[in-house]
């Protein structure tokens, strides 16, 4: 498990990345700043600077609010703010640590991911 911060302006969220090869591949990019945009009123997405190693990741995943995922076919990061049914190519990286009163759907623009100490 890899604890991280997600920083968006004055918002600080804590999350934990899973102990999987693909999550470790994402953690190797940290600290990382990306630009989040909304995708279909379900998730926030961002391009990553390089493809992640997906290795033996499951073929599909059903996302829940607060999940941090990779959509392998496009190689982009996605943070879900609504539940989503199982989708081929969706791989869980981790999740927010606790329910938050932050409106995840309001997260936009530059966001920084970094490891906690």
Give the overall average pLDDT. Answer: 93
Q: Into which percent range does the helicity of residues fall?
A: under 10%
**Could you state the oligomeric state of the chains shown?**
single chain
Q: Give the H and E element order.
A: EEHEEEEEEEE
Shape: globular
Number of helices: 1
**CATH topology, what is it called?**
Cyclophilin
Rg, nearest Å? 13 Å
Unreliably modeled segments: none
How many strands in all? 10
Largest sheet report: 8 strands, antiparallel, barrel
* CATH class label: Mainly Beta
Tell me which CATH architecture applies here. Answer: Beta Barrel
End-to-end distance: 13 Å
Pfam families: Cyclophil_like2
Protein name: Cyclophilin-like domain-containing protein
Domain Cyclophilin-like: 9-109
InterPro entries: Cyclophilin-like (IPR041183), Cyclophilin-like_dom_sf (IPR029000)
């Amino acid at each position: 498990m890899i604890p991280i911060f997600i920083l968006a302006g004055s918002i600080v969220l804590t999350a934990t990345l899973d102990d999987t090869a693909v999550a470790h591949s994402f953690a190797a990019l940290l600290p990382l700043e990306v630009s989040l945009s909304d995708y279909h009123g379900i998730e926030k997405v961002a391009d990553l600077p390089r493809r992640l190693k997906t290795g033996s990741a499951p073929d599909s995943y059903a996302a829940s609010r607060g999940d941090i995922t990779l959509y392998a076919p496009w190689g982009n990061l996605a943070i879900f703010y609504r539940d989503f049914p199982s989708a081929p190519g969706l791989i869980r990286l981790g999740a927010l640590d606790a329910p938050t009163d932050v409106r995840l759907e309001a997260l936009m623009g530059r966001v920084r991911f970094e490891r906690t100490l």
